[in-house]
Amino acid sequence: MDFSSVNGTENNDELLDMRKDIQEIYKNSMDVMMNLKNINMTMIYLVDNSTNQAVLVSYRNVPHSYLERASRIDRPRGITWKLITENHLLNIKNSQEDETIGAAGKALNKKGVYGVPVTMGGSSGEARGVIWLWSDEEIDFDSNEHKLVLYVSSKVGMAITWSEKYAKRREEWKNKFSENQAS
């Protein structure tokens, strides 16, 4: 499917190109998601295995009070970890009435919440994070919008995979160069 025309976004393939810096891909992902109807807050949480936390790596329109409370979430607390662990989509019609939304989420005073796992490229399909979309209204995506959210999530997962592989190779090259210099 061509996502270049969904909700007036320019060329999503270009915005989320793997050759871009990982931070730029996170930023562009949030920009693309903010163009969806009724979405007025977005977040990407990724798992940091060294601290056993889900860490907020990119966001749009998130209040400072939330950032102070929930920019890092200890495993296995909260709905973010539930979504990572269960690795499935979540569409909450009214976050104020939903028991799975914690105090920090309820304090955002949003109604609709849409969560999409960020899965890694490759065959494992392991969830390593979540993209959260928040709205003052119920979130009712049409088929193209739903596919766009899945597409962006998969591009973020692939970018993480590429970034990790590149970092590993860069370290190997650095070590090899150091060995050659010592000889």
Q: How many β-strand runs?
A: 6
Proportion of helical residues: 40-55%
| Low-confidence spans | 1-10
CA-atom Rg in angstroms: 18 Å
> Which strand order spans the largest sheet, edge to edge or round the barrel?
3-2-1-6-5-4
Strand content: 15-25%
* Outline: elongated
Mean of all residue-level pLDDT scores: 84
Order of helices and strands: HHEEHEHEHEEH
The number of distinct helices, counting runs of at least 4 residues, comes to: 6
Largest beta-sheet details: 6 strands, antiparallel
N-end to C-end Cα span: 53 Å
Structural class: alpha+beta
Report on this model:
- The chain is of the alpha+beta class and 183 residues long.
- Helices cover 42% and strands 22% of the residues.
- It contains six helices and six strands, in the order ααββαβαβαββα.
- The chain has helices at residues 12-15, 22-34, 64-70, 78-86, 103-106, 143-182; strands at residues 39-48, 53-60, 72-74, 90-92, 112-119, 127-135.
- A six-stranded antiparallel sheet has the order 3-2-1-6-5-4, sandwiched between helices.
- The radius of gyration is 18 Å and the shape is elongated.
Describe the secondary structure blueprint for this structure.
Blueprint: H1 12-15, H2 22-34, E1 39-48, E2 53-60, H3 64-70, E3 72-74, H4 78-86, E4 90-92, H5 103-106, E5 112-119, E6 127-135, H6 143-182
Antiparallel strand pairs: 1-2, 1-6, 2-3, 4-5, 5-6
Distinctive features:
six-stranded antiparallel sheet, disordered N terminus, single chain, 22% strand, elongated, 183 residues
